[in-house]
Amino acid sequence: MAALDAATPDTGAGQADPQAFVRKIDGRSHLDLLVRGATCAGCIARIESGMLADERVEQARLNLSTGRLALVWRGDRSAARGFVTRLGEIGYPATPYEPENEHDPQKEDERRLLRALAVAGFAMANVMLLSISVWSGGLEMTETMQSLMHRISALIVLPAVAYAGQPFFRSAWSVLRHRHVNMDVPISLAVLLACGLSIYETFIGHGETYYDAAVMLLFFLLIGRFLDMRLRARASQAARGLAAMQAATANRLRPDGAVEAVPAREVRAGDHLVLAAGDRVPVDAVIIEGDGALDGSLVSGETAPVEARPGVQVFSGMLNLDGKLVVRASADRDNSLLAEITRMVEAGEQSRSRFVRLADQAARLYVPLVHSLALATLIGWFVLAGEPHTAVINAIAVLIITCPCALGLAVPAVQVVASGRLFKAGVLVKSGDALERMAKVDTVIVDKTGTLTEGRPRLVEPETLPEGMLELAARLARTSRHPLSRAIADAAGMGPAAKDVRETPGGGLECVEDGRRLRFGAARWLGIDAVSDPHSEAWLVIDDGAPVRFRFADRLRSDAAETIEGLRQRGCHIELLSGDRPGPVGAIAAELGIGHWSAELKPQEKIARIEALKAEGRTVLMIGDGINDAPALAAANASVSLASAAEISQAAADFVLQGNRLANCLVALDISRSARRRVLENFALAAGYNMIAIPLAVLGMVTPLVAAIAMSGSSILVTLNALRLARR
């Protein structure tokens, strides 16, 4: 059995004690930490290997998208503080992971990057005006005037570089202190050398300065760093949204019959809890007393309420719609269904982009290569020229011109253009690498309710009902918010409502009108043997007369058939997975010609099917809309949700279809495949640039300013190629 260690208060240092967040599961300690400063695959490797170096640690896995580090170790919770200290020593500060906490430390990092970008842009714009004056002045500009221009440039650039370069300088210093390197090391070195040489030339020498090159380099790199952080920050929205659905408190029933409010984190298996109407279920539990109805969309995705009666299993996050319930907890909060769904969503959010990984690996190879080339250039030119000035200039040019900005932009530039094109078509792209994954899709999993269908029940064949029965049922239904009651009211239209209607939770509606007893509700409540068919049903009984049956069905979206056929034409295998009953699911599958379908599935079972398909080598697209679909959306290679979907599902999905037009997923698939071709072309352009530029820099044929311009030019080239996607 799993049990959560008792919580302890804050340490008093303004930071939560990590021991309070340790979970004991099967004799092992589990702790989730929020790690800051991790930006690439190299960071993941350093963090995980650094933690696994402790012989007590059995598992260490970092999710780069959310910054969540999952630790598992043998031993008591007292080791938690030591692990946090160890992470700080490696160079990555950490705090307990609390997705339900509204404070997001990444937002402050984004604001700092944005401020640095603004400072670099302001300095670049102003120093370029001065540089143009110097370049165009020629023989007419005196040496004194040139010196003044250089000094003004220094006053503008040096403070700007000191501020705007902090993200790179701090990162470089952090890894160097621990005897590692990353791409921020050569970037920082190039900027500092360019500034240092410029200072020398301004106040001692009489040559060219390179203030413009230094600040221009920072400006372009900060743009890429900010966009990257924004994309990764979005990945944590689904987990935060799910965590927000967890009840913060619970009403625990004491042995003496008194009810006490306690933090939901303190609930243990076996505790008795009281749920009032409108309360969310704080933990997985079993009903032991009371009747009513629950919103079960979290588990099944279906709009029809779940009947609540003794013996029924309920899950965390469900909403008690009516009636008082007493439940017995079967798990603590961190081991309940909603917590499990949150963890599954985060596992699915782990970066899956092959192109981005290739770019990162190439960038990591650049570090030793760039340093070696720069050092060889410095030594070679010092030997050949016999003086340090030329050697330093050429070494700086090598450091700048070899900066892999074009390689870094090869993927994001295409993503930005393709995302804009899709936005105009009514598709929002929410994940930076979703286009690449969508382009390779060959298998599509679709949900039923709210995805292929409209997501709300409608009365079937109202014209076949006996005369007057629809209006009688509607008089009762207009007093209730039950989905089937709303369907009756919609079918009958505007009209009067019955008076003194009594609603039985989980049963139905009844009143006495004109001396007649009217009852409308579930077959079990009315004592009727239900007929099994693909439709939901309700019954109307007048006094002791023959019951009148009302059938309901969820109607297909107008473009559902077009979408399914379009996916088939694009070579996709299609399966229908639903939490609904087999009858309705089979009927929809038959109508759309979907041969593979499954019904009454829970979120874990949908994920299991997706993982099985992925194990077969398939690339899976999941299309869903319910809260219960969020883990499957995150687990699939690519995912699509609709604008009418639950917010949690929209946060977990890679694409959101505006206007609820399902056929727009075909547009997303087509543009994604075009985007993949543009990315491959950009890689080829970036490689070609380096094959030409690096030898020129080593041979001393470019200055640092020209190197900065060439580096920027390569970025512009891949961007222009990406813009080809904007053409229809």
Brief summary:
With 728 residues, the protein is α+β, with helices and mostly antiparallel strands. The chain has 25 helices and 28 strands. Helices cover 49% and strands 18% of the residues.
Structure explained in plain terms:
By secondary structure, this protein is of the alpha+beta class. The protein has a seven-stranded mixed beta sheet with strand order 16-28-27-26-17-24-25, sandwiched between helices. Strands 1, 2, 3, 4, 5 and 6 form a six-stranded antiparallel beta sheet that branches. The chain has a six-stranded antiparallel beta sheet with strand order 18-23-22-21-20-19. Helix 11 packs antiparallel against helix 12. The model is unreliable at 1-14 and 347-352 (pLDDT under 50).
Structural class: alpha+beta
Question: Distance N terminus to C terminus?
Answer: 58 Å
Lateral strand order in the biggest sheet: 16-28-27-26-17-24-25
Number-wise, the strands total 28
Strand content: 15-25%
How many helices does DSSP assign? 25
Radius of gyration: 32 Å
